[in-house]
Write a structure and sequence with these properties.
This protein has helices at residues 18-29, 44-53, 63-67, 79-89, 107-113, 160-172, 182-208, 212-221, 224-230, 237-246, 248-270, 274-293, and strands at residues 8-14, 34-40, 58-60, 72-75, 98-101, 122-123, 126-128, 149-152, 176-179. Strands 3-2-1-4-5-6 form a six-stranded parallel beta sheet, with helices on both faces. The chain has a three-stranded mixed beta sheet with strand order 7-8-9, covered by helices on one side. It folds into two domains: 8-182, Rossmann fold; 184-293, 6-phosphogluconate dehydrogenase C-terminal like domain (6-phosphogluconate dehydrogenase C-terminal fold). Helix content is 52%, strand content 13%. α4 (79-89) packs parallel to α5 (107-113). By secondary structure, the protein is α/β, with parallel strands linked by helices. Bound molecules: nicotinamide-adenine-dinucleotide and prephenic acid. Residues 9-297 form the Prephenate/arogenate dehydrogenase domain. InterPro entries: 6-PGluconate_DH-like_C_sf (IPR008927), NAD(P)-bd_dom_sf (IPR036291), PDH_C (IPR046825), PDH_N (IPR046826), Preph/Arog_dehydrog (IPR050812), Prephen_DH (IPR003099).
């Protein structure tokens, strides 16, 4: 008996880095996803690596060539480049195909892409809430999305059949899926992802600006607290610069909220208010424990 046809005939990934190569690896392992895999990147070195890893049937630096036969194009490039690359790709995509991307910020990017959408191509952006601090094709792995949320953020009036196909794609990658509205998505991510990265980069920068002797000792003796808190400070600078700028207003509001809470904790410490200090620690701890219960830690 022949196996059922895959979800897509041809899947093209623009930017086979951490996220893109993880998607390709998964698609290669799971024939239900696509029959043919294409990797597109501006870097010939990245494509050489993709070839050696054997995770695509075709590689190309040409956007036009890479997208023209694809039934779905998933752009996995830095947030700041997503809208302009989409605008360059769209005229070469075939009628009835789907454009998607995995950018970490939604409202601003979707607003830039939607006016350029031809009526016969559907845009279904997603955001897999999974990653690591590493980048590039060697950093990817096929189980990256397993048990993680993949948020779908389709613009209003997107056809439900296209949304369902994209949802199925990510479920075949092992993810749990949910549809959310773009502004709400950006508020959530400002809190759970963008603020933590901003703090991790800044705490490392603060240590770096200490006097020479103190800085050296701080880094020598950094134990698990500093280490756990700053793992994500190893992340890619371009990716995070782009995210901070694309979600500027919401990140600044979230940061202001955080500074307000920090000021209250500082006041409790200054005045020796033991109950207030304990209550604040307990609230934070409860949140951390709830992440474990929700399988998110
Ligand atoms: N890293 C994470 O944890 C994570 C998680 C979810 C979503 N994201 C989002 O996914 C996207 C990719 O992140 P990543 O960590 O996989 O990045 P990465 O640096 O590992 O890979 C990005 C790839 O895009 C290529 N690229 C850059 N500009 C390009 C262009 N103009 N045309 C073609 N190729 C181009 C690079 O050469 C590289 O191969 C970003 O938008 C990021 O915000 C990242
Ligand atoms: O685990 C990490 O290293 C990540 O940074 C992953 C992480 C996150 O902040 O949770 C990073 C950016 C994304 O858009 C989604 C996931």
């Amino acid at each position: 008996m022949s196996s059922p046809s895959p979800l897509f005939h041809t899947l093209a990934v623009i930017g086979p880095g951490l996220i893109g190569s993880s998607l390709l690896r998964r698609a290669q392992q799971n024939p239900a996803i696509a029959q043919r895999l294409i990797a597109i990147d501006q870097s010939a070195d990245v494509l050489e690596r993709v070839k050696s890893l054997g995770i695509a049937d075709q590689v190309t630096t040409s956007l036009a060539e890479g997208v023209q036969e694809a039934d779905i194009v998933v752009s996995c490039i830095p947030t700041g480049a997503v809208a302009s690359v989409a605008q360059q790709a769209l005229p070469h995509m075939k009628s009835g195909s789907i454009l998607s991307d995995v950018a970490s910020v939604r409202s601003t990017i979707t607003q830039e892409i939607v006016p350029h959408l031809p009526s016969d191509i559907t845009y279904v952006p997603v955001h897999p809430m999974a990653g690591t601090e590493y980048s590039g094709p060697d950093a990817g792995f096929s189980t990256l999305f397993e048990e993680r949320w993949c948020l779908l953020i389709p613009p209003e009036s997107t056809s439900s059949s296209a949304i369902e196909r994209v949802e199925t794609l990510w479920q075949l990658c092992g993810a749990r899926t949910r549809r959310v509205e773009a502004h709400y998505h950006d508020q959530i991510c400002a809190m759970v992802s963008h603020l933590p990265h901003l703090l991790a980069f800044t705490i490392c920068d603060t240590a770096d600006r200490l006097s020479t002797d103190l800085r050296a000792d701080v880094l020598d003796y950094a134990a698990s607290g500093f280490r756990d808190f700053t793992r994500i400070a190893g992340s890619d600078p371009v990716m995070w610069r782009d995210i901070f700028l694309a979600n500027r207003d919401i990140i600044l509001q979230t940061l202001e909220r955080f500074q307000g809470e920090t000021a209250k904790m500082a006041e409790a410490i200054r005045t020796g208010d033991r109950d207030a200090i304990t209550e604040r620690i307990e609230r934070g701890r409860r949140i951390r424990l709830s992440l474990l219960e929700n399988r998110q830690a």
